[in-house]
């Protein structure tokens, strides 16, 4: 397998979904290594000598190498088990405490996650007792599709819908977005798509926020699930990297802006009514004056 520095950069970029950054000597060690296994071993030796490297930097370093390795591996089986294997290969020995015991296994409790794009609110994730059932259903439905018979736009919308559903289930306690991204890349490659994975390097936050917005609704605030951002991401990934990503906005800010527009519109109409009434009153006064004369 080729030792691909660009793929390692993709790995670093994907770690950005959790605001992780590599250690100061990461790139130096990567360039001095000749393969992924050697790079990971050299990084682990480096941590033994430099105790200033924190756990988040270690996670970013090791997982970046493993992401690069996985997205270049040709082996892939389309199944929920593949998600487990990807998760295990990415995070084994990386997480600490209880999280490390759950690597490669579905979570055993329900979760919420504060999202900046939602002003701290959380998507509703799958019930931990039904994770296997949810995934089995979605994978079986996906197997029924024939992408070869679809138009490009249909391919984009279908893969966007499937990946959105898998992510919303959130089967793992931690590392779901990175696992989902690697799975998506491998699945698309298996189907024969030629991808420029640099989009995951440069727009990993956009990818995560697009997944969030595709699975969040707040009826009282007039906010519905919006998959258009995720469609935009996959169109750029699968069709043409020169396409512009759709400008993303916090749905609550859009709601406030729309409310302000409504208020301005009502205010304008109210002023028009007042103006009309004032004009009518003045006209009547002038008419009465003429009659008196």
TrEMBL record:
Query: Which InterPro entries does this entry report, sorted A to Z?
Result: Fido, Fido-like_dom_sf
Superkingdom per UniProt: Bacteria
Q: Which reaction does it catalyse?
A: L-tyrosyl-[protein] + ATP = O-(5'-adenylyl)-L-tyrosyl-[protein] + diphosphate; L-threonyl-[protein] + ATP = 3-O-(5'-adenylyl)-L-threonyl-[protein] + diphosphate
Q: Report any one BP term from Gene Ontology.
A: regulation of cell division
Fido domain residues: 78-236
Which Gene3D superfamilies does the annotation name? Fido-like domain
Pfam family, any one: Fic
- Enzyme nomenclature, EC number: 2.7.7.108
Give yes or no: UniProt keyword Transferase. Answer: yes
PANTHER family reported for this sequence: PROTEIN ADENYLYLTRANSFERASE FIC-RELATED
- What name does this protein carry? protein adenylyltransferase
